[in-house]
Amino acid sequence: MQLVDKIKNTFNNSSDLIIKNNNNIYIVYLESLCSQDKINEYILKVLTIKNSKKLQDNNAAPNTKVVTSYKEIINYILNGFTIIIDKQVYAVETKGNLIRSVESPTTEPDLTGPKDSFNESIQTNLGLVKRRIKSPLLINDDYIIGRYTKTKVSVLYINNIAKKDIIDNIVKKIKNIDIDGITDASHLKQLISDKPNTLFPTAILTERPDKVAQDLLDGKIVILVDSSPFAIIIPAFFADFVNPNVDSYKKYTNINFIKIIRFMCLLCTLFLPAFYVALISYNQASIPLNLLINFAIQRQSVPFPSYIEAIFILIICAILRESDIRFPANYGSSISIVGALVMGDAAVNAGIVSPIMIIVIAVTYITSMVFTDIEVIYSFRYVRFLSIILVCFLGLYGLYISIFFFLIHICNLTSAGIAYTFPLAPFNKPYFNKTIFNIYKKEDKYRSSYLTNKNYHKQGD
Amino acid sequence: MKKIILIIFIVLLTGCYDYRELNDIAIISGVGISKEDNEYKVIYEVINTEANKESSNDIKKYNVTGQDKELINAISKANEALAKKPYFEQIKVLLITKDVNILDISDYIFRNERINTNFYLVLCDDIEEIFDFTSVNEPNNSIAISNLIKKINYDKITNLFDFVVDNLIQGYDIYLPYITIDNELSLDSIGIYDNDTFIRYLNQEEYRIFKYLNKVKDIPIINNNNSIKIYNSKLNFDIKNNKVSIKYNSKGSINYLSNEYNLRDNNSYKEISKTFSDTLYQEVSNFINNLQKDNIDIFGITKLYNTKYYNDKLEFKDLKLEYDIKVDVDKAGTSFKEAK
Description:
The structure holds two protein chains of two kinds. By secondary structure, chain A is an alpha+beta fold. Chain A has 17 helices and twelve strands.
């Protein structure tokens, strides 16, 4: 048959392309993408029934379509459908179960809140969101990206909340993408970011469907990418990375204390090593005498300047962290032991670093672990190194310059056209009460006017 | 590109101005300046950073000396005797002997941007003896002296070098804490100055009254078999009709009492207050009158008087003084019965 030969040629006689002939009815599918059980159940059983004139009527498959163009046939075959070529051409969904089940979040764990997370199936991910927002106003616009990967991308928003110009902005960026392929949501995130050269992420990658649902209700836009267990949330602001919205599951009075601690952690993780180097190398007068004596005694055996010492341990820590991420989990503990030995005891005994420097760097790294987004942690690392380099030339003055550099840089960023420092600058009370500090849930009545211009009320009228 | 070049130039040309690694500096915790045979003798108390902190045998500090007719040369000689760069920004005390003129040495100290002037100026008889002393409680004598002064003058900064010199320049009479060794370092008295000329040390009785007037807490007042302690006090100078009224209002609580008072009776408290007010009146008036005889005005009363009457000729000894001393003994927390 001509069509079957054409398909064979298109797939270059691929070994997993199966073509069966049953009384001149051809069935064509890719063995690697389809479930044999489903093919037996939905198709082969039906074909054995005599006089089954209308295949579509007798078919038990939930998704059967009549296909009219050759391009569609190829597309369906590549998406795990089985093509039945009779007088008409049908596509029956017989996708194999190639995805893992819904599991607990691994990168954003939290003590409270839902325990499900996205997986690699866009349908499942969409289902997890729609299960939480049961409204026809939750829109999902689908796009295909990638010349070869043909990756399905779904843009989600709530029609009567999200701002149209933000949606148009994102959709325009997605439509402008012309690329061989994307294999993860992070690729798409990079392709649609406002300023690609910045250190800081301007979109959130999350694996928590509850977080996605909360942000959709606030007027943000969510992008799901097929074969990626992460959703992209746009716009995203600096405050969102410091204080994730899972905070809303806890009592506001308690969580506000944690939020203050997080802010202190932010300062520590960015500037503590630089501050220590400035004090030790330039501004010793700022340290109380008794403490200075301790520092001096501890540093006596260290031959390197303090900035070399700091950079040395920070690089070792970065290597340890990277190896911890890359190594299989089973080896993780041995890496930690080696790291702790190298960092802790051996380095001090060898006189390479002082004990106080170990404490400073340990506090720096522990405080960085408060933040879950890996992109943010990487960007903090840049600021940390930059501030140490400035401090080793200019002392505390260099630290102030690096703080100003950091502030100027984040003030210069935008996410989907909104300032990255939102809700502090420009100040916005509803979003401030959601991120910087939490307020009593009953009093959290309004949405931010920067994210919506249609529907401000969350509660009441 | 221009920006990057500019930043590199700024960093390279302006950087490292006061860079000094902690290993390369000799931390000086105290400085002593004395005059011997018309020569300045400068002594530094330097912290030994190579000492093991846990080991009690290791020397925790050492002294370095320089001597010359000129102060600056004496300091240079002391600096040369150090193996590392001298670091003056953590000085806690400057010890001087009574024959050192404060204004003479202050000029060098204020002009040197490497010296932090936030330290106490302290009098002593023998600086070497003080710096050589090894205390059980605090290995560093400068820190020990600084802690002693803070304990006595917990809410005062008047002994800091800046303030002392500022007072001298403005024409005030000053007083400095006087450190001696009596098994331990002790602050036993103050030395009083007529502007920048040393006059004498206060005796024990005078020093006790001085502490009352300087708000030092919990100093007992004893009258016969009764004693109270002052826990709150206020000293004011009211200048009216060419007279200075010295007002001292204080609150005290009972330390111990003899049987003669019935503490359940409110009148007893009035009686106790009056008795102690009279006692303190006697002591304070004697103390200030003695100072007036020496023409030493450590409270700055003359300056206040002359400012009020636009006069700069009157001296402390010419002023008419009145005293209004009140001690209010309250019954908060008092046990009504005697322990025995």
